[in-house]
Amino acid sequence: MLRFVCILGLFSATFAAAVPKPCCAKHQLTADLQQITGSYTNGTPSTVETLMKIQYDYDTLMIKLELSDGTTIIQDFNQTKQYTTSGKSCRTDDIQSDIQLQPPCVPSNAVYRGRNTIGDDVTYDVDTWFVAGTPWGNITVSVMAHDCTPVMQGTSSNANNVVSQTTIFYHNVQFTTLAATTFQVPQPCP
Ligand SMILES: *[C@@H]1O[C@H](CO)[C@@H](O)[C@H](O)[C@H]1NC(C)=O
Ligand SMILES: *[C@@H]1O[C@H](CO)[C@@H](O)[C@H](O)[C@H]1NC(C)=O
């Protein structure tokens, strides 16, 4: 009986050690994103694939998205303004004040889903986390264990008769220092 208890204790200790803390990546990041959204709107299915380059700076609260169709979106979460340029046209919109730039972190309330590897010749550990009930829906995010580099993020939502699943793959991630000019808005931008 005593031995049985000891084995159980050993197991639970091993399990506790295997659960990492939610991590944070560096505050500046560039990446090529492949975003695929599948949705049902009142029963009608659709899929949309978007390729874009993201430049993200959490210190200055700026994001720049360069879409493959030539559209560029700069979001300034400090001034809560969004600037969309396409060709020679530029448009300014307000960002809703309840939308905030997300920190480069796995949220502290995320539930750990376990560790896997990617790669074969060279392998990296990847941790997966789940967060239910965010303003965007339920989020599943996978990050590299050693430095929190995002690998994949999935969002499922079901609201206003739209059921959707969005998956974002993070390619060519680099933690690089971004010049302030990166987020310069073309003038004029009415
Ligand atoms: C936000 O903008 C104000 C006014 O321009 C500036 O003083 C402040 O440093 C900015 N905050 C950040 C985080 O960039
Ligand atoms: C979100 O997660 C909760 C808890 O796991 C689940 O009950 C709910 O069905 C999920 N919603 C969607 C849209 O996936």
From TrEMBL:
One of its GO terms (molecular function) is calcium ion binding. It comes from Mytilus coruscus (Sea mussel). PANTHER family: MAMMALIAN EPENDYMIN-RELATED PROTEIN 1, RICIN B LECTIN DOMAIN-CONTAINING PROTEIN. Keywords: Signal. The keyword Signal applies. It comes from the Eukaryota. Residues 1-16 form the signal peptide. GO terms for cellular component: extracellular region; lysosome. One of its GO terms (biological process) is cell-matrix adhesion. This is Uncharacterized protein.
